[in-house]
Amino acid sequence: MSKEFTDFELASHFGTLVGQTYGTAVKFIELNPDHALVEFRALATLLCNYILDNYNEHFQCRTLEEKIDFLADSQLISTGTKSNFHKIRKYGNSSAHKHDLISAKDKDYFLKLSKENLV
Fold first, then answer.
1. What distance in Å separates the CA atoms of residue 34 and residue 97, rounded to the nearest whole number?
2. Contact 88/41 with Cβ under 8 angstroms?
3. Which residue of 2, 52, 96, 106 is most buried, as measured by CB atoms within 10 A?
4. Are 101 and 53 in contact (CB under 8 A)?
5. Distance between CA 8 and CA 13 in Å, rounded?
6. Which residues are CB-contacts of 46 (< 8 A; sequence separation ≥ 6)?
7. Angle, vertex CA 66, rays to CA 42 and CA 99, nearest 5
8. E runs forming strands in the chain
9. What CA–CA distance (Å, rounded) separates 99 from 26?
10. Could you give the CA distance from residue 110 to residue 75 in angstroms, rounded to a whole number?
11. pLDDT per position as a tens digit, 18-76
């Protein structure tokens, strides 16, 4: 019988940083969707880098867009995955340039303040 995984366990399978980034993105979906989009974009970057590293392809100087296209052209990801990664990249781009995003340093304070506001 196969073992079932939660989404957090699956994300953590790709490394601690991927798991933490996914966890942060999920936490902020309702509290601050703009920040969640930035975190999901970072997650897409980490996953692209993970795939490239596993196939011994090193393109650290490339943009995320170029990495996604390269992975699809090399048939390392499907066209559906390529499309999803590009959507995440585009949504995250617009949020990344807003000035009201919280920094990682302020994350705990923001969570505390948000909980107080909900109460």
1. 10
2. yes
3. 52
4. no
5. 9
6. 14, 15, 17, 18, 21
7. 40
8. none
9. 21
10. 41
11. 899 999 999 998 888 888 999 999 999 999 988 998 888 776 668 899 999 999 999 99
